[in-house]
Task: inverse folding
C-alpha cells in the first residue's frame, strides 16, 4: 500500500520534516511511504498511491490517481483541494482542524488582549521613548477590559469551539455563529445561524472570523457588514484573508468607522509592501503565525497516525471533510 506525501511551502515549518516519514516507515512497515521534496513528480507518483498527504492537488492529478482512497490535509482549510474532480470522486478527505484549532484560538485571544489593552500603540510610544500614559487613556477607543465584553465568533469549529471556552473563562459573553446551530453551542452563551449574523454583529465588542472559506463566506465581511460594527468594536481574522473584502476594510478603517482590526491572514500573502494596511495605526498584523508552535508536527503525527490505524483496520475516520460543503 503506497502513501504519498506531497507537501511543499516556502515557509519551512509548513513542510513536513523528514523524521515524520521515517517514523511512519518504522511504525507502519506495511506501507510504502514516498515523501516528495517538491511537486515535480506528483502526477507520476500519485498514480499508484492509495493514501496521500497533501493540501493541494490539481484536477488532472486526481484523475490520474486511480487507486487513491484517502487524502489527508495538514491544513485546517481545504478549499485549495476542492476541485470538481475531487468533489465528484469517492475519495475521503480529512483535515487537521484539531491540530491547529486550539493553538489558533490562543492567538485570537492574544490579539483581543493586545487590541483591548492598546499594546500596539504602547509599543510605538516605547520606540519613541515616550511615557504616554495620558495619550493612551484619552485616545479613542480607550483601554478596556475583556471581562464583560461580548465576543461574536463566526465559525464554531476547530478554532471557534476552543476560542469560545477561552473567552468565557475570561468573563466574556460569547455569541457563536455557525451554519448549523442545531449542532450545539460549543461552550458559547448563545448560538445562531447565518440568518441572524447581522444581529450577532450588532451585539459584538469583538468579532472573530474563524469560519471556512465557502461561496457563502467569501467576502462575508463586506462594506455593509463592516458598517454594522460598533464604533468601539474590533475585528479579528484568524480564518482566511478572503473572508473580508479588503478594499472595504481599508476604507472603513481609514474612516475610523470601528475601532480597529487584527489580521493574521490577508487576501494576498505575503501582504504586499504597498498595502495601506501596513501603515494604519488601527491595524495589528501578524504574518499568518496563529498556528505556529514547536509542537505542531508532533501533534500532526499523533492525530494522523490515530486516523491511519483506523484506516488500516477498516474503521471510520476522524475529522472527515464534507466535500460538498468544503469543510
Result:
Amino acid at each position: 500500500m503506497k502513501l504519498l506525501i506531497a507537501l511543499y511551502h516556502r515557509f519551512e515549518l509548513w513542510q513536513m520534516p523528514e523524521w515524520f516519514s521515517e517514523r511512519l516507515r518504522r511504525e507502519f512497515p506495511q506501507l510504502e511511504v514516498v515523501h516528495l521534496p517538491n511537486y515535480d513528480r506528483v502526477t507520476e507518483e500519485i498514480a499508484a498511491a492509495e493514501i496521500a498527504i497533501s493540501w493541494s492537488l490539481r484536477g488532472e492529478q486526481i484523475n490520474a490517481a486511480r487507486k487513491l482512497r484517502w487524502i489527508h490535509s495538514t491544513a485546517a482549510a481545504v478549499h485549495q483541494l476542492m476541485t470538481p474532480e475531487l468533489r465528484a470522486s469517492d475519495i475521503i478527505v480529512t483535515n487537521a482542524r484539531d491540530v491547529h484549532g486550539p493553538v489558533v484560538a490562543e492567538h485570537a485571544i492574544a490579539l483581543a488582549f493586545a487590541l483591548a489593552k492598546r499594546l500596539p500603540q504602547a509599543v510605538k510610544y516605547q520606540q519613541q521613548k515616550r511615557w504616554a500614559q495620558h495619550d493612551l487613556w484619552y485616545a479613542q477607543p480607550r483601554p478596556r477590559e475583556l471581562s464583560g465584553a461580548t465576543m461574536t465568533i463566526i465559525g464554531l469549529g476547530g478554532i471557534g469551539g476552543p476560542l469560545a471556552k477561552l473567552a468565557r473563562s475570561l468573563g466574556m459573553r460569547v455569541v457563536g455563529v455557525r451554519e448549523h446551530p442545531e449542532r450545539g453551542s460549543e461552550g458559547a452563551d448563545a448560538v445562531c445561524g447565518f440568518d441572524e449574523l447581522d444581529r450577532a454583529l450588532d451585539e459584538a465588542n469583538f468579532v472573530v472570523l474563524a469560519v471556512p472559506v465557502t461561496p457563502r463566506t467569501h467576502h462575508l465581511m463586506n462594506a455593509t457588514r463592516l458598517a454594522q460594527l460598533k464604533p468601539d468594536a474590533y475585528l479579528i481574522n484568524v480564518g482566511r484573508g478572503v473572508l473580508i473584502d479588503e478594499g472595504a476594510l481599508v476604507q472603513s478603517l481609514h474612516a475610523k468607522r470601528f475601532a480597529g482590526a487584527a489580521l493574521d491572514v490577508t487576501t494576498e500573502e505575503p501582504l504586499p509592501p504597498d498595502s495601506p494596511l501596513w501603515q494604519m495605526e488601527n491595524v495589528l498584523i501578524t504574518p499568518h503565525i496563529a498556528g505556529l508552535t514547536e509542537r505542531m508536527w508532533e501533534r500532526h503525527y499523533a492525530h494522523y497516525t490515530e486516523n491511519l490505524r483506523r484506516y488500516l483496520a477498516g474503521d471510520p475516520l476522524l475529522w472527515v471533510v464534507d466535500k460538498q460543503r468544503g469543510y
